[in-house]
Automatic annotation (TrEMBL):
Pfam families assigned to the protein according to its UniProt record, in alphabetical order: Glyco_tran_28_C, Glyco_trans_1_4
Domain of life according to the entry: Bacteria
All copies of domain Glycosyl transferase family 28 C-terminal, residue ranges: 614-677
Name this polypeptide is given: Glycosyl transferase family 28 C-terminal domain-containing protein
Entry GO MF terms: hexosyltransferase activity
Length: 727
């Protein structure tokens, strides 16, 4: 008798009451819809002491035939084995289920520990030894999120993990409720989840900031509310507490206006499934900044203190409220929809009717010759944009991988790059030594995975980067080092130049005003022109740009782009600038950085846009008021856009002031030296004049340098075929 070959076998303890079982249920449904068969293999987890029943979602799926439950000891054959919940393997299994599978994946849906103890929940090395002993050394280890990935690497820097996370999935159509705005007479803040003390803010003040005891506002809690009440010592009059499991989450979400989730700072939240569910249901989500690598700009980020002002502002603006809800829905469907799961199964050979692979084996390594582009965690997108500008001009057959510490990882992904996210030291809150080790191990893993011939680093040479470079001397290491550093800064970084084989320096229009330490370190440095992401012929024509941005024809338009808002307060001068330009008859567009950590407040008479690259639409504007960071500055000069520079004086290395002053002295731009004084009105009074703007454009056309990105790409590409020239 021929044994049944299932498409997917899922091994776990199916009694888990929370996200683990909900995740398994979602994957079973996705597999059934795709015509794939699923067999469930139940093993008991040693840390679930109570004799619980199976999760009701899984029970229903077994009843309706979406999944087949294997009997204890039954031999199971499957094309792919998916193992969930590493805590099952904190002790030896009493009986190892007899499973034969072509490939296997261990989904790490929980971090080994938390901020206080990296092995609080399980010893990763011990779990790995058991799992490989049971299912073979070729099993893939797939973190469920960047947070889990970082914690696993903190516990075991040498761990080999999959390049892409095995993220949660959801069917948005089952959750979505179309709402034109808030559904309640007063703002209703809500949250749902299993009861656990670490799922709540640690201190009483933070708890009441996130879930306020405030007149004119209500709080509704499904699951765990009794723990918050115990912490407070009372039940606030405006709180409604619903026992966990007594109401379906989808029904609960239909009755709240905002989903707010803050927890104990020691907790490493593996994913945040309840956050994803709220987004899919059309409820705006307010969460902490550490979730940004997962949810990008689909959520709203703040601190507990910022919850009430943000909720009140969004509640009062139904149009923005709906826009936030629609953006989140689109994000969830694109990133976490069922098709994403079917695609990752197909990558492992699991398709309807596909033959079973003959044996469990890791995928073959990629061919050597890739270029790995490593960017720092800049407050803006400068580091990342320069590398992407080079990457998109490398020869078409060159494998290009972007590894970035920036929240702009989503931007790189959308621009078509294979993107690896490395959580930064500030996101993880690690000490310098711990961060250096994690960064080194992560880079070495990416080198092993992608086998690059060239690693180009647009970053200061952190300890982890230097260690990885010195350990892999068979690769060409290039430091892409932007000039124009502030005077008397960065000498310690210059001293680390010998860790690299070469230094590539993007050009600087204001080079004559450069007084930073890179000026004295040019021997052997490869110089190219200023690097911009786009070339002039890639910009939209003025009429097309205006139509795309909704700018009315026949009236002048101005763009305000003052940076990411992550260094200092960029909002203060915006209102004065906007008022002056409105009074002069200009339409206003306010550019919000794709990685801004705080949403920009509304500015009267200005529409807010969040696009990348914003430079594509610059010809639709008659005037731009901008910070003078490297990328924006050189784009505006190169494309001949009349500009007023408002330099950021709080940058660590970048000398924006000298850059802007040089452009003004060259007649290519204007500068506001003191945005808090009369200088702002005086400069803008000149900028709004048509003759002044025409003169600025003409001068830019006379002095604008050519884009150096193609030269940089060609120079890097030479080292792919000629590694002997690396030194």
């Amino acid at each position: 008798m021929t044994a049944t070959v299932h498409d997917v076998a899922i091994l776990s303890d199916f009694r888990y009451p929370g996200g683990t079982s909900a995740s398994i249920a979602a994957e079973i449904r996705a597999q059934a819809r795709a015509g794939l068969t699923t067999v469930l293999v139940h093993v008991r987890s040693p840390h679930l002491k109570q004799n619980r029943p199976f999760h009701p979602l899984l029970t229903e799926l077994i009843k309706d035939g979406s999944a087949y439950l294997a009997a204890e000891g039954e031999e199971v054959t499957a094309r792919l084995l998916v193992v969930r919940q590493p805590r099952i393997f904190t002790e030896d299994l009493k009986t190892v289920p007899p499973i034969r599978a072509g490939r296997a994946v261990m989904v790490l849906n929980q971090a080994p520990g938390d901020a206080g103890d990296p092995a609080r929940y399980y010893d990763f090395a011990a779990v790995r030894q058991r799992v490989q002993g049971y299912f073979g050394a070729g099993i893939e280890w797939a973190p469920i999120s960047p947070q889990v990935r970082a914690e696993v690497l903190r516990a075991d820097p040498g761990a080999t993990l999959t390049g892409a996370d095995w993220h949660e999935i959801i069917d948005g159509s089952e959750w979505w409720t179309d709402r034109p705005g808030p559904v309640s007479a007063v703002p209703v803040i809500g949250r749902h989840g299993r009861p656990d003390p670490v799922k709540w803010p640690r201190t009483v003040p933070e708890l009441l900031q996130a879930y306020p005891d405030t007149p004119g506002m209500r709080v509704r809690i499904l699951g765990g509310g009794e723990l918050a009440v115990e912490k407070l010592g009372r039940t606030p009059a405006n709180w409604e507490i619903i026992e966990f499991g007594t109401r379906e989450p989808a029904e609960f979400l239909r009755g709240i206006d905002f989903f707010v989730y803050f927890h104990d700072p020691d907790l490493i939240e593996a994913f945040g499934r309840t956050i994803m569910e709220a987004m899919a249901a059309g409820v705006p989500v307010v969460i902490g900044e550490h979730f940004r690598p997962l949810f990008g700009d689909a959520a709203l980020y703040t601190t507990p203190e910022g919850v009430v002002p943000l909720v009140r502002a969004l509640y009062a603006d139904p149009g923005r409220y709906r826009a936030v809800a629609l953006r989140a829905r689109e994000f969830v469907e694109a990133r976490f929809g069922y098709p994403s799961h079917v695609a990752r199964l197909a990558d492992r050979g699991v398709r309807p009717g596909a033959p079973s692979p003959p044996a469990l084996a890791p995928p073959p390594p990629p061919p050597p010759g890739a270029v790995l582009l490593v960017s720092d965690n800049g407050v803006g997108l400068g580091h990342l944009s320069r590398l992407m500008a080079i990457g998109r001009r490398l020869p078409g057959d060159t494998p290009v991988v972007v590894a970035t510490q920036s929240h702009g990882a989503l931007v790189a992904h959308k621009e078509g790059f294979l993107t690896e996210y490395i959580p930064s030291r500030s996101v993880l809150g690690l000490a310098r030594s711990g961060w250096a080790e994690l960064l080194r191990s992560r880079l070495e893993y990416l080198i092993e995975l992608h086998r690059p011939a060239v690693v180009a680093v647009d970053s200061v040479p952190h300890d982890g980067i230097v260690a990885a470079a010195r350990a892999h001397r068979g690769i060409t290491w290039v430091w892409v080092r932007r000039p124009m550093w502030r005077r008397d800064t960065g000498a310690e970084w210059i001293e680390r130049r010998d860790a690299f084989d070469h230094v590539l320096e993007p050009g600087e229009f204001a080079a004559a005003a450069d007084e930073g330490p890179t000026v004295e370190d040019r021997a052997g440095v490869r110089l190219v022109g200023p690097i911009t992401y786009l070339d002039p012929d890639e910009l939209a024509e003025p009429e097309d740009a205006r139509e795309a941005l909704g700018i009315e024809p026949g009236r002048p338009a101005a763009l305000l782009q003052l940076g990411a808002g992550n260094i200092n307060d960029i909002v203060s001068p915006v209102a004065r600038i906007a008022r002056h330009l409105r009074d002069a008859g200009f339409q206003l567009v306010l550019a919000e950085s794709a990685i801004a950590t705080e949403p920009m407040p509304p500015v009267e008479g200005a529409q807010l846009v969040k696009l990348y690259p914003m430079s594509r639409y610059l010809r639709g504007f008659d005037l731009v008021v901008s910070a003078s960071g490297y990328n924006s500055f050189h784009e505006l000069i190169a494309f001949g856009i009349p500009s007023v520079f408002l330099p950021n004086r709080e940058t660590a290395l970048d000398d924006q002031v000298s850059r802007a002053r040089f452009a003004a002295a060259a007649g290519a731009a204007l500068i506001i030296e003191d945005p808090d004084g009369p200088d702002l009105d005086r400069v803008l009074a000149r900028a709004v004049r048509a003759d002044v703007r025409e003169a600025l454009s003409r001068r830019c056309a006379e002095v604008a340098p050519l884009n150096g990105a193609a030269d940089a790409a060609g120079w890097l590409a030479a080292f792919i075929d000629r590694p002997e020239d690396a030194r």
